[in-house]
Write a structure and sequence with these properties.
435 residues, alpha+beta, BirA Bifunctional Protein, domain 2, Rossmann fold, eight-stranded mixed sheet, five-stranded mixed sheet, elongated, binds adenosine-5'-triphosphate, binds magnesium ion
Length: 435
């Protein structure tokens, strides 16, 4: 689990704010659910045989001897909240969420025990257009974040019947070749055979080349459905690749499954994963209701943005991590001056300027050093002299300017009416070089 330090949070805020804009534009509302749920929600919803429930959950007994779990993903909680609060009575739900998730995994680049997801769920819609719209939401957001090197892979898992047919074909075929499988896949052969398709083991992958294919088990209807999703994606000009091995880690998916990956992320290459889950709501005690959603892993997204920013420091991705430096650093010393500075800083902030007030009462040269380090565009100086003359000193801290240009570098403004100061700040508001 990691701390996010002050220099890291601007990029998080930028992503969250852009995502919010995309969601508002698409008429999607935010939902916030507790981080802690009854363990049963996940064992019922995600499935006992999955890695997430089987080995990755943070579960414990609370003081009332109830088994509780820190949520490992968002979908089950969103569905629980939707059902508990009767939201489906109001019609279909288009929801988004963001926040920390917890999985006991081996930490490595792009894999943490507390990580963050941003996710979307469309509940109550089964039209293939909604599949395309949900995928487009993720794709467009990632494009808008400046990620231009992504790949969208899609697959159809068919319906429950299709999968039953396929499962028995696959198990039959693999059972006679069991010794060639990696140990994880051998275990999955009985419990969760479809997950073998998704094995990271290269020998297993080579063996699977000749195995029965999922698409040949799809019913006519499932095939038609999958084709229709593709037509809509083409209409939206979203490039995609069909990956017949793509099955998602959680049990509740059917029909459309998709992932957005980046070759730049190494082993942890999936930035966004999602799919249709038409049986989950019923499984959790609700009425049969179709739904589809995705989740973006924010840590992986940020790793990617950082890599792309390094390659192209003036690109869109690079701008996201810019830190908001102050417009004005207020240097002040002397009893009256300090009192006045406190008031002035509030007035300037109320007018929209970013102001850092030095509260140290330290020597002027020390305050000037801090002003330079702060990245502020301007230093505003008030001391005994300024109080006496009634004039405040404004100094330009942009060191790229000619130091001997007095007009550019230093001005005096009346202390008791900040209008002329503000006017000057606004008209000279060349973009802060440090920002
Ligand atoms: P993986 O195959 O990488 O373990 P997953 O199939 O378990 O991923 P999902 O449950 O679909 O992942 O979660 C959606 C996204 O959340 C992933 O694509 C990834 O970006 C992110 N994610 C999942 N687990 C972690 C983790 N432990 N640390 C950081 N990000 C994660
Ligand atoms: Mg995982």
């Amino acid at each position: 689990m990691v701390d996010l330090l002050p220099e890291q949070t601007p990029i998080w805020q930028a992503i969250e704010s852009l995502a919010r804009t995309h969601f508002v534009r698409a008429g999607i509302s935010e939902i916030r659910t507790p981080l802690l749920e009854a363990t049963e929600l996940f064992s019922k919803g995600i499935g006992e045989e999955t890695d997430v429930v089987g080995k990755e959950m943070y579960s414990f007994l609370d003081r009332g001897e109830r088994s509780c779990t820190l949520r490992p993903e968002g979908t089950a909680s969103v569905i629980r909240a939707v059902l508990e609060n009767g939201l489906l009575n109001k019609g279909m739900q288009r929801l988004w969420y963001a926040g920390p998730m917890f999985r006991y995994e081996r930490p490595q680049a792009g894999r943490q025990r507390q990580f963050h997801q941003l996710g979307v769920e469309f509940i109550g819609l089964n039209q293939t257009r909604s599949d395309a719209e949900v995928i487009a939401l993720a794709w467009n957001l990632l494009q808008d974040l400046g990620l231009n090197n992504l790949e969208l892979e899609i697959n159809s898992l068919g319906d429950e019947e299709d999968r039953k047919t396929f499962r028995s074909q696959l198990v039959n075929w693999l059972q006679s070749r069991e010794s060639a499988l990696d140990t994880d896949s051998q275990k999955r052969l009985l419990q969760n055979p479809l997950r073998i398709l998704d094995s990271k083991n290269s020998q297993t992958q080579a063996l699977l080349e000749k195995a029965p294919k999922l698409h040949s088990s799809l019913s006519k209807e499932s095939q038609k459905r999958f084709a229709s999703v593709q037509i809509h994606l083409q209409a939206l000009d979203i490039p995609f690749k069909i990956n017949d091995r793509l099955v998602r880690g959680l049990d509740y998916y059917d029909q459309t499954a998709f992932e957005i990956t980046s070759p730049q992320l190494g082993a942890q290459s999936t930035v966004c994963g999602g799919g249709r889950y038409n049986r989950l709501i019923e499984q959790l005690g609700g009425p049969p209701t179709p739904a589809i959603g995705w989740a973006i892993g924010l840590e992986r997204l940020i790793l990617l943005i950082q890599q792309i920013s390094q390659e192209n420091p003036s690109g869109k991705a690079a701008l996201l991590s810019k830190i908001n430096h102050p417009d004005i650093f207020l240097i002040n010393k002397g009893a009256d001056a300090e009192k006045k500075a406190l008031v002035i800083s509030q007035e300037l902030r109320a007018a929209g300027f970013i102001v850092e007030l030095d509260c140290s009462s330290g020597a002027f040269n020390k305050q000037f050093k801090r002003a330079n380090r702060s990245g502020a565009r301007w230093a505003l100086v008030i001391g005994d002299d300024e109080m006496r003359t009634g004039q405040i000193r404004l100094k330009n801290l942009d060191h790229s300017l000619k130091q001997n240009d007095p007009i550019q570098n230093e001005q005096l403004h009346p202390l008791n009416n900040l209008e002329s100061l503000m006017e000057s700040l606004r008209t000279q508001a060349t973009p802060n070089k440090n920002n």
